[in-house]
Amino acid sequence: MKKGVNADLWAGLFTLFVVAVFWVQILERDEFSVHSLYYPDRILPILCIMGIALLIKGFVHPTRKTDFCKELNRELVFTAVLSILWVLSMDFLGFILSSSIAMFLMLYRFQPPELRTPAGIGKILLIIAGELAFMWIVFVKFLAVTLPEGYVFRLLNLD
Amino acid sequence: MELILGSFANVLTFQNILFMAVAMTLGMVAGALPGFSATMAVALMVPFTFTMSPTSGLVTIGALYAAAIYGGSFSAILLNTPGTPSSIGTCFDGYPMVKNGRGEEALYTASFASGIGGVIGTIILIAFALPLATWSLRFGPPEFFWTAIFGLTIISSLSTKSVLKGFTAGFIGVMIGMIGLSPIGGDVRFDFGISDLQGGVEMVSVLIGFFCIPEMLRLASNPRQGHIQMGHLTGSRDTIIKSFHNVFDHWGNIIRSSVLGALVGILPGAGGNIANLVAYNEAKRAAKDPETFGKGNPQGVVATETANNAVVESAMVPLLALGIPGSPPAAIIYGALLLQGINPGPELFTKNAEITYAFMTSFFIVNVFMVIIGILAGKYIFKLVVNLPTRVLIPSIILLTVVGSFAIRNNIMDTILMLSSGILGYVLTELDFDAGALVLGLILGPIAEKGFVQGIILGNQISTEHPWIIFFTRPICIVMIILCLLSACWPLFQMFWRKRKAARQGGAA
Question: CA B127, B247, B131 angle in degrees (round to 5)?
């Protein structure tokens, strides 16, 4: 029988990891004023105790999750990785280019194989153009948001 | 009374109604766009009101502000993404209603609830502006500290799976909220050496990440499922009537949530972020079926939407009566008043009484129109989302979250934070951590810290050995402590009563 993931143990470890990350940053205490440390100095120990309590619960009376990350499949990982690349490339490629590529890849992958025809691809391109144009008009033209132009467009402008 | 009736006549001109209708439509769009706050919408509208008469200008800005807060419910319900922090609580039951195929009903319920919440908020504004404003000044740092702690105690009833994990998530949120400049002291803390984090994490980005991205990832695991089950668009009278009954058959919830919203809204620095969560918690606590909350109970939507719309009007109380802007949109309205040559403060009710009462009474009309426009807009927005296949909906929503999180500060780091929060949120919810609790910590943490450190500084003037005594001796603090204890222990009381009832029934059998 499948035992499942010990959710309490992992939750405890995660909490202690968070405590460690914040704790390391206030090790050099001379850099901070008393008032800046007053509050974190009280919250971090409480969080640490909670992490330990979760760890103990994980050993004594664990919550086992047999359905942990049950949706995790190739499509989900693809979406997560592509979204990360989309955001990271936005500064370099610019909003329009990075969003067009990421949306095309996502829409193409999610398209049922029988619809991956020239007409289907045409539809995808139309959706992308329509949505990006809408976003551009609303955010850039009406709301004066400066979306990343990217180096590619800047180079083209220089030429 | 004559003044109020006269101000109705001032507001109900063709020109004002036209301005209000345009402002409300724009406000709803702005509120529904994740990352576009009510503050930004109000700020953008102010320049357009320069040339208007003072009454028209103020009425337009007021309409936009109210509609932006209401608009946040669209994305909260349909996409599980709070358009504004005031709609966090709406996600808790609005999105489950969508998943249960009751999306249209949720939208209409939110419309009716927002309307009535706004109307009650307006009544409170007109009737009690001056005494309430004076009362709000009694709130010093220790009282604000306990108000934030009271908000945090909501976690005990929010976390249905594990209270320990709920509070742990809340404290993690508090720690994340400390990233950046400390409110007292001014040091840059916990920035991980990243200069973009020196200004702190942008709350709305994190909100979008924690609530929306995990849901999108779950949908992405099966992108060819056709359409999300949201229910069918009927547009029929039945759904509207059902939604009407969801709201107006529960006057207890309406009054409680509106009054809570109005009271929290009056406090400078608090506002809709806290009010909607407090109202949600109280509605759950008072309900006969608390176990259905979080699973698509319309009363959850009613509580949050009445509260956050009552906040809009009550936030005007300290501004109009004392000249103290208690929230960022109120600060912009303060500027708009000055530009019109009106000085906010007690004199406003004598010197410029006509304009002031016209501004206040305009909220009655705005809230009635908001219901009508909201139902019409809700119908078409719902139709659009329902007809989009999941495979198109996923990239479209991710695009919206990317642009929305970037637009807040024109900073790519906010978008990276949004996505990281989303992926972290997915893993944390799988470990039974509650995303709502974490976000609650993030919102209330900075308020609690400011109150705590300022309170200690104040306390030093009373006793250098025991400065913390100030938190336990002031009358409002004592009331707040009792409320905190009751709120935190409520699930325990409920468990005790249930066991006792079961034991009695067992004994009788």
Answer: 15
